[in-house]
Each structure stands twice: as C-alpha cells, then as structure tokens.
UniProtKB/TrEMBL annotation:
<feature type="transmembrane region" description="Helical">
    <location>
        <begin position="64"/>
        <end position="86"/>
    </location>
</feature>
<keyword id="KW-0472">Membrane</keyword>
<keyword id="KW-0812">Transmembrane</keyword>
<feature type="transmembrane region" description="Helical">
    <location>
        <begin position="175"/>
        <end position="195"/>
    </location>
</feature>
<dbReference type="InterPro" id="IPR050352">
    <property type="entry name" value="ABCG_transporters"/>
</dbReference>
<dbReference type="GO" id="GO:0140359">
    <property type="term" value="F:ABC-type transporter activity"/>
</dbReference>
<keyword id="KW-0813">Transport</keyword>
<feature type="transmembrane region" description="Helical">
    <location>
        <begin position="139"/>
        <end position="163"/>
    </location>
</feature>
<dbReference type="InterPro" id="IPR013525">
    <property type="entry name" value="ABC2_TM"/>
</dbReference>
<feature type="transmembrane region" description="Helical">
    <location>
        <begin position="31"/>
        <end position="52"/>
    </location>
</feature>
<protein>
    <recommendedName>
        <fullName>ABC-2 type transporter transmembrane domain-containing protein</fullName>
    </recommendedName>
</protein>
<dbReference type="Pfam" id="PF01061">
    <property type="entry name" value="ABC2_membrane"/>
</dbReference>
<feature type="transmembrane region" description="Helical">
    <location>
        <begin position="252"/>
        <end position="272"/>
    </location>
</feature>
<feature type="domain" description="ABC-2 type transporter transmembrane">
    <location>
        <begin position="15"/>
        <end position="220"/>
    </location>
</feature>
<dbReference type="GO" id="GO:0005886">
    <property type="term" value="C:plasma membrane"/>
</dbReference>
<keyword id="KW-1133">Transmembrane helix</keyword>
Length: 279
C-alpha cells in the first residue's frame, strides 16, 4: 500500500500499535463524553416512551420505529465521520511529510480505534428501545437487531469517511453528505413506495435499503398474522411497506453491506493517499 517500505524507521506493526493507543485515548473522551451519553439516553428513553409497548397488531408503528432507527443511526455516524479527516488534515500532512509513519498504519489504526467507541452508543440505544417498545421478545431477534444496527453504523461511518477525505472541506462535505443521506433514506422504501423508474436504481446502492430490509426480517415473517381491522387478520406479507421492501435475500443484503463497508474505506484511503502525494 505504501511505497519505499524499507525506508521507514519502524515496522508497520510498531506504527500501528502506537497510533492505535493514541487514537483510543483521543476517541475515549470525544465519543463517550457525558453530554453525548446523556443525549443518547434521552433519545433512547424518548423513543421508548413514544413507541411504548407496541405489538405486531400495531405493525405500522413498529416499522415506523425501525425506519426512524435506521435514519438516526445512518446520519449521526455519517456526519461525525465526515469531519474526521478534515479536522486532522494539517496534522496528517505534517506527520506524513516527516515520514513519521505509513499512511496505511495510520488509516487502519484510525478505523480500528473507532470500533469500540462508535459501537457503545448504538448498543445502549438498541438495548433500551428494543424492550421498551416491545419488539419481538426473543434473545435471537434482539441480537440480530443489535448486530444489524452496528453493521449500519460501520457502513454509514465509512460513507462519511469517504466523503470527508474526498472533499476535505467540512462545510461542503456536510452539505454533500446531507444530500446523499437524504437520497439514500428516501429510496429505502418507507417514505416513497412508487418511485419513478429512472431513479429506482438508487435503492440498490443505498445501504439504508439493505439495513431496513434486515431490520424488518429480524422481526417478521411473511406468513405472520396481525390484526388489521375489527376481527380481521392479515398476513405481514400483505403490508404495503413490507411488500415493497421484502423480507427475503438476507444473505445478499449482508454481502452488499460488506462490500459497501470495505468499498467506502478504500475510497477514503485512496483520497488520503492522493492528498499526501499532492503536498
């Protein structure tokens, strides 16, 4: 990944270890500040109260919450990540020009350091809201929902890193990220069911579409029944939103999200490498 490996004063592993420790110390106070934890607790309990003890008979409420969770935990990590590399731009240029470490060791350490910090808050959110709202009361469904949420955060963060490193202007990057995030969310299938054919392809590159599909799949099966009227039962598969998004092809959704997770970070790395080579 980096040229002239033999000219570096330390090994890649030593660089990675030092940079990882530095990033973990820096991220500890930034990601888990009292204010942010308090904010997350407030959002979690507010969501739990608004959707309190819902059930499959109120399926529209439940799928509405799942979309709201998809939206919040797509935009929040994306906007945070957009600012990451622009804020460290001058430091990175200075340290790279001094050949203090390889770009690859910095980049991978930065991403690994984000894992525990970025997963703590969404884990709290899911743990609180899942049981307050009354989603499918099984440990298996809860764990699947939690894993999908963390997957969503990683992919959304990767999108933010790609945008931030490619643009390197916090204001423009945030505006562009807002446009992309809005398009991806609207194309996911909850807000708009009859999308025009010339823009229908957007959902296939939207991680929100695959995340939302996995969220729905963690809660329902097509043949599940819910009360859709007085003494009337309907199949979950007949619900307009679920019929549009679908519950099948979970494996494909997981694979596509994995490709996006890696692909966005490859774009971010290439953009940082270009930045280094132009300075």
């Amino acid at each position: 990944m980096d040229k002239d490996i033999g000219q570096w004063p330390t090994t890649w592993g030593q660089e990675f270890s030092v940079l990882l420790k530095r990033d973990l110390l820096g991220r500890k106070h930034k990601s888990l500040s009292i204010i942010q934890v308090g904010q997350m607790l407030a959002v979690s309990f507010l969501s739990g109260i608004l959707w309190w003890k819902s059930s499959i008979n109120h399926i529209e409420d439940q799928i509405g919450f799942l979309f709201a969770a998809t939206m919040y935990w797509s935009l929040y990590p994306m906007f945070t990540a957009i600012l990451t590399f622009p804020q460290e731009r001058m430091m990175l240029i200075k340290e790279q020009s001094s050949r203090m470490y390889r770009l690859s060791s910095y980049f991978i350490a930065r991403n690994v350091a984000d894992l525990p910090m970025e997963h703590a808050l969404p884990s709290i959110y899911v743990t609180i809201t899942y049981w307050m709202i009354g989603l499918k009361p099984t440990v298996g469904s809860f764990l699947v929902t939690l894993v999908v949420m963390l997957y969503n955060v990683l992919v959304s963060q990767g999108l933010g890193l790609a945008i931030g490193s490619a643009i390197m202007n916090p204001r423009i990057g945030t505006i562009f990220g807002g446009i992309v995030g809005q398009a991806f969310l609207l194309a996911s299938g909850f807000c708009i069911r009859n999308v025009q054919s010339f823009v229908a392809w957007i959902k296939y590159i939207s991680h929100n579409y695959y995340v939302y599909k996995l969220f729905l799949g963690s809660q329902y099966k097509m043949d599940d029944l819910y009360q859709c009227g007085a003494n009337i039962s309907c199949r979950v598969g007949s619900n307009p939103t679920i019929k549009k998004v679908g519950l099948g092809n979970k494996g494909i959704s997981v694979v596509v999200l994995g490709l996006l997770l890696v692909g966005y970070r490859v774009i971010a790395y290439i953009s940082l490498k270009r930045l280094r080579e132009t300075k």
